[in-house]
Specification:
521 residues, mainly alpha, 65% helix, disordered N terminus
Length: 521
């Protein structure tokens, strides 16, 4: 089954947000409309824009927005380091795009027509006046002349259709503020004028004024505009105003009427994520994957749902599949690596981190440096060295901060492996450049703690004077004194470390030292 996608981009509807150029398609299409009785017979429901949009087949599948930008998982993934993913603000219209769609433009032109049941009638004289305007638009292709002619004959007592048509002319020229004013006038004259509500709602959606759009869009539905476009835009507006329960309901209606348009299903998925209905989101993604198994974005979206369900290894399967498809991103591989870190699968984590680095074309050393630090802290020294050696291949291209981080990490691994002079030399270089580098001071202290405790204490005391490293320095200093059986001297340091950063393991350690100190008292 072929999937269609409705494109509702605000930027290309009539020459861009700021321009006033008239879309060429509008000019071409006006001349194709049959004037006279077709336009103003008062029974042209087929001209209703929303109805036409849903009736026309076809669509786009290749210009949609990135799925991760349309639907944002907000799962509780505390066990996994969250990433900052650049994305578009959901309060913009970049997530949808109907404005440059040929069906929309033809249907918009059809909104010059009328539906007698919910729209004002026109007198014979008014019909003639409107016919002249349409002739100018069709034969002379001159919107400005048509506008001038129409405004000349429009009076306070004129049919609301006159005000509506002026609004349409402004809308075509991308003069949205003026268009809204005329649609408001039309609605004031004829409060059940559905097309006026619809076009005003579309402008508010296009402008990103979703709170203002909602009353107009709901009025369209109230007046019988039960179409997928109406419900879909209503869902988008509700979602953009953080009313995700109503957004879910609206998107469900849109999908019921048009199960082929992916935008509505993505909107529904987004509402699921916002409500933390991760099971529903995963199930919906499964349906999308079955329809488009080669769409990596659906696999990644489902991975986010699995993370929300606390099923990280199922998420990992999705990330691995996307990588096998050749569509992985640096961000997706880092997420995969973080999952493997939490599962203590060090080799697989290192492979994923290196893949992320390659996808960045080795231009972002922050990722492997971070990975090396995590792996070293977990005791996976060999894998940490793999990451560091890879970064060191481009050592000359590193900025000073990155070079310092690389040196510290290499020294940390060397110290952990019992390394000697080379590690100490690197650390002392770092401290010489930055005397307030608490991490380097602590690493030096740990190195000297094996053989020269007095020097180790000197470095621990220096590190303790740095606020961000005081707790760690006092903890290690206290442990060093415990190793020397100086329990009384160690206790104040350990208690201070616990006071700064309370942790159950430190609390237990302090209690044990206190008991020993009393026994040895």
């Amino acid at each position: 089954m072929k999937t269609k996608r409705i494109d509702i981009s605000a930027s290309r509807f009539a020459g861009g947000h700021g321009g006033t150029a008239v879309c060429p398609l509008f000019r071409r299409s006006v001349s194709t409309l049959a004037m006279g009785s077709f336009l103003f017979a008062g029974a042209a429901s087929a001209n209703e824009m929303l109805d036409l949009l849903d009736a026309l087949p076809g669509g786009k599948t290749d210009r949609g927005p990135a799925l991760a930008e349309v639907v944002h998982a907000e799962a509780d993934m505390s066990a996994i380091e969250k990433k900052s993913v650049a994305g578009r603000n959901p309060g913009t219209l970049q997530d949808l795009s109907v404005w440059d769609d040929e069906r929309f433009q033809k249907a918009f032109l059809a909104s010059y027509g009328a539906n007698a049941e919910i729209e004002p009638r026109v007198s014979a004289v008014e019909r003639e006046q409107l016919q002249k305007v349409m002739d100018i638009m069709s034969e002379e292709d001159d919107l400005q002349k048509a506008m001038k002619q129409l405004r000349k004959v429009t009076k306070e007592s004129s049919s609301a259709l006159f005000d509506f048509t002026i609004g349409n002319l402004y809308f075509q020229q991308d003069e949205l503020t003026e268009a809204l004013g005329w649609y408001d006038r039309a609605i004031a004259k004829f409060p059940t004028f559905r097309r006026a509500y619809k076009n005003a709602g579309l402008i508010h959606v296009r402008n990103g004024d979703f709170g203002k759009a909602l009353p107009f869009l709901t009025k369209v539905v109230e007046l019988g505009g039960h179409t997928s476009i109406a419900y879909g835009l209503l869902g988008f507006a509700y979602g953009s105003t953080e009313n995700h329960l109503c957004a879910e309901s609206a998107y469900r209606q849109a999908i019921l009427l048009d199960p082929e348009t992916v935008d509505w299903q993505l909107g529904l998925a987004r509402s699921f994520f916002k409500q933390q209905k991760f099971g529903d989101a995963a199930g919906l993604c499964e349906t999308l994957i079955q329809r488009q198994p080669d769409n990596a974005e659906f696999w990644l979206l489902q991975a986010n749902a699995y993370l929300g369900l606390k099923q990280p290894m199922k998420a990992a399967e999705n990330y691995e599949y996307v990588n096998a498809m050749g569509q992985a991103t640096s961000a997706s591989m880092v997420m995969l690596a973080d999952i493997y870190i939490n599962e203590a699968r060090w080799d697989m984590a290192a492979d994923a981190y290196l893949r992320a680095y390659e996808l960045d074309r080795a231009n972002n050393p922050a990722t492997p440096l971070r990975a090396a630090k995590i792996l070293a802290s977990r005791g996976s020294l060999d894998q940490s060295k793999r990451m560091l050696n890879r970064v060191a291949e481009k050592k000359s291209a590193l900025d000073p901060a990155e070079l310092k981080e690389l040196l510290k990490l290499q020294a940390r691994v060397a110290v952990a492996e019992g390394g000697g002079a080379e590690a100490v030399k690197m650390l002392e270089e770092v401290v010489e450049v930055d005397p307030l580098d608490g991490e380097a001071l602590i690493l030096l202290a740990q190195h000297y703690g094996r053989n020269v405790p007095e020097k180790a204490i000197f470095y621990y005391e220096r590190a303790a004077n740095i606020e961000s490293h005081e707790a760690e320095a006092k903890l290690y200093h206290g442990q060093l004194l415990v190793g020397q059986a100086k329990y009384g001297d160690a206790l104040p340091l350990l208690r201070r470390a616990y006071e700064l950063k309370p942790r159950p393991d430190i609390e237990d350690y302090v209690e044990q030292v206190e008991r020993i100190a009393k026994t040895r008292g």
